[in-house]
Amino acid sequence: MTKYIFILAMLTCTFAYSQNTLKVIVKDSKSHENLIGVSVYIKDTAISGITDNNGFLELSSINNGEQKISFSFSGYEESLIAVNFPQQNNEILTVELTSKQEEELDEVIVQSTRTSRTIKNTPTRIESIDAEELAEKANMKPSNVSMVLHESTGLQVQQTSATSGNASIRVQGLDGRYTQLLKDGYANFGNFASGLSILEIPPLDLQQVEVIKGPSSTLYGGGAIAGVINFISKKPKEKGEYNFILNQSNIGQTNIGAYASQRKGKFGYSILGLLNFQKAYDVDDDDFSEVPKSHNFTVNPRLFYYPSESLSFMIGNSFTKTDMEGGDMYAIAGNADANHVYFEKNKTIRNTTTFEIDKKFENQNSFKLKQSLSIFDRKINIPNYEFSGINTNAFTDVSYVINREKYSVISGANLVYDNFEERNINTLDAKSFTTGVYIQHTWDVSEAVKLENGLRFDNVAYSNINFSKNQNFFLPKISALFKINSQWSSRVGAGLGYKIPTVFTEQTETVQYQNVQALQNVSAEKSIGGTADVNYKGEIFSDLKFAVNQMFFITKINKPLVLQNNSGNLFFVNASDPVLSKGFETNLKFIYKEDFKLFVGYTFTDAEAKYLTGNQFLPLLPKNKVNLALIYEKENNFKMGLEGYFTDQQFLYDGTKTPAYWEFGFMAEKTLWNNFAFFINFENFTDTRQSKYKSVVNGPHNAPTFDDIWTHTEGFTINGGVKIKL
Questions:
Q1: Of 109, 328, 576, 652, most Cβ neighbours within 10 A?
Q2: What pTM does this model have?
Q3: Which domains are delineated in the chain?
Q4: pLDDT tens-digit readout, 255-268
């Protein structure tokens, strides 16, 4: 009996010894942060688990011998390691996972902050629209970037003319003049040029678009109250890039574009060429164009010289010429008579010359000089009235960046000269000269906390035929990034801003600047604002990953410039009470098996003009907007997408409310032989348009007036074409 008890005890000990325990901590291979929620399982067993808030996991009941252990986590390469059991000393195993470059959007290097940091290490909240998404939007509208911005959460493209299609961009519900538009960091799109700016930026040569929402005045000065949108061009690489696009739509638009670039040794080049032809289009048969007849071409060559790998020079020149004519279809066709006389013509020439020096030092510091000279010549004609003038803008910026392991500092100075001269008369002549100095410090307090603070001082002198004024502006800004763990992070930021007074706004654009009086004794508008967001990324199961971003914003503009009407004469005054815009954005992204992607965006905007009595609404601003996009893609093979957008009711300038509406679109693209892609796009296939609710044109044919534009005017459109990459 004693012998059997001894044998049983030995078997029990042997069995217990064969049941091992694994203790493991999982980290990010670059940041060495602990990863929460990593799936760990032992091959050919039922043993599995998920790492806790410290990236730690303990598994038990593991048999002796070599065991293969799998580690998988959203956005990271799966890792498979072999461990021999029993382990010596029962030590804790440390495993580091490597992020997938194709999924790691945070690895995008942002240029708008000028510090060469990745998005995930930048305290300032930046949204990046990458080249892939830009290519999709170029299928929908190759002529300009309006579609890129229209379909982004929190952004609104506002059409300002019923017949010519002019438009501006709004951020967080604020008027377009409060958003700074940049091309490669150059601000050449303000004032007189603003009504046509986004219509004259083609997407074909863009590498990415960076959007900063909220005050961004430290680096960019006046005008960056609601935010900054920076359109960043591609740069030449050793491997040449040659892209062509041909597009045709059912409403008479033809687009022919080409982009080429390459670097060979010490020299490089890039060149963009684009031709756009549009026939006048009348969808509702009221004899007035919803889309104007237009001819537009852009050519933008740039030359690069690299004396060494640490020094580069760039000189470029962008030239755009546009002729648009909208109005009565008979008048556009040259068949005007007593009842068919109304037209609106816009003729513009935009020429921008840029020059840049970029020097990098061995200690990772860098020096950059940027200069641009932009001339915008525009002529507007309607029956018995003409408005024309030339806007000249000169910009110089010099900066020095100090990069260290734990911090970076950028300091610099810039000069901005802006001058508008009206032809024939000098009623609205105005000029401004801005001298600014700035410094911004970004500090990696730890892996979990990163702080950014900046200060700008601007001296602005502006004048017109009535008065001249000189103002100083101190513009502090602070931002912080908190990396709570591998799944949670948060950004907060706040700052001040200002906008130099101008008569060129969305409202005055709609009346072609008729009867607009010169500014008289007004002051610059000043703002204070901030944003805060929370980010989370994880997975529902191994094949379904998701990310959430919840952002809150608030902006207060003091002494807003408000348009007044006195017996038909239009003039601006500074209101005593502010404009206040606040709200939030919610963005969800789901990825299933890398092929299916679902994007959901919701924007709530509560904006009030406190200077108004009674209803303090801001016109043409929906309180609620929803963006939906479902994309299926097999890389370099096939892609298709279904999009839906909901826009809530809006107040018009006369106080009436518009109906809410949905719009939907569908696109497909097929790639053949890796070089040819054929695409088709069904935009707004539910045919949502304003004339379905009420005629946009009022009054007699020979002297019409037009309603405010609050949705599509052209309705359902189809376009398709071919893209060639060599």
A1: 328
A2: 0.85
A3: 2-97 (2.60.40.10), 105-231 (2.170.130.10), 232-725 (2.40.170.20)
A4: 999 999 999 999 99
